[in-house]
Amino acid sequence: MKRTIIVFDLDGTLNQTHLFAVAAHNIALKKMGFPETDLETVMPTVGSPWSEFVPAIAKGIKKEDMPRYLQLLDEANKEAIDGNAAPYDGVPDLLRKLRADGLLTGVCTNAKRPYIEPVLKGIGVESLIDYTQGLEDGLPNKGLTLRKLIATAGAERAIMVGDTLYDKKAADDNGIPFIGCRYGYRPAEMEGLPYVADTPADIYPLVRSLLSGNE
């Protein structure tokens, strides 16, 4: 069997981000003297790179102040995640089934590493993910982060699973299949795609169908 990795976006795919995101942003906003935000403002930004979500939430922030905001947000996320974070129903079972089939699992996200590890631990799936990759210097977009993750895993074949067009473009940039998660935060972006999951449980049969005949 070819070495295969199933790569997941994090927020809106594995993680119910809305359970802690607003609280975390409000902690960081307060420390920097910005007005508090709300769910309606935060949720459309989930999955975006920091260069897009920070000015959308900390309105009027100067470019040179963004790194400070991100540092405060990383600290606030750790506080807000504790006791509040949760995976979507069925995610742990899905990851176990994939690994039982001999498939690798990965997370590719527009977030940075200080966010990834606390979230995976907070939602209880840290031990079920083999590889993780976020944005970092020299990897300014999700297509490149996905490429690095696949290479690091030594995978000969991969499938990307996510809930935004950022995820779809990353899959397209790497020439791999994409499964869209309509249960995530941007369901309208998933309409009309050939492979769409309405629940995490729907992902497993789609993976098996895409891999069928190519073992």
What labels describe this entry?
44% helix, globular, 10 helices, 215 residues, alpha/beta
Give a summary of the structure in a few sentences:
This protein is an alpha/beta fold and 215 residues long. The protein has 10 helices and 6 strands; from the N terminus they run E-H-H-H-H-H-E-H-E-H-E-H-E-H-E-H.
How are the SSEs ordered, and which strands pair?
Blueprint: E1 4-8, H1 21-32, H2 39-42, H3 50-57, H4 66-81, H5 91-100, E2 104-108, H6 113-122, E3 131-133, H7 142-153, E4 157-162, H8 165-173, E5 178-181, H9 187-190, E6 196-197, H10 203-211
Parallel strand pairs: 1-2, 1-4, 2-3, 4-5, 5-6
Helix pairs in contact: 1-4, 4-6, 7-8
Describe what this molecule looks like in 3D.
This protein is an alpha/beta fold and 215 residues long. The protein is built from 10 helices and 6 strands; from the N terminus they run βαααααβαβαβαβαβα. It has a 6-stranded parallel β-sheet with strand order 3-2-1-4-5-6, sandwiched between helices. The longest helix is centred in the middle third of the chain and has 16 residues, at 66-81. It is globular. The mean pLDDT is 95.
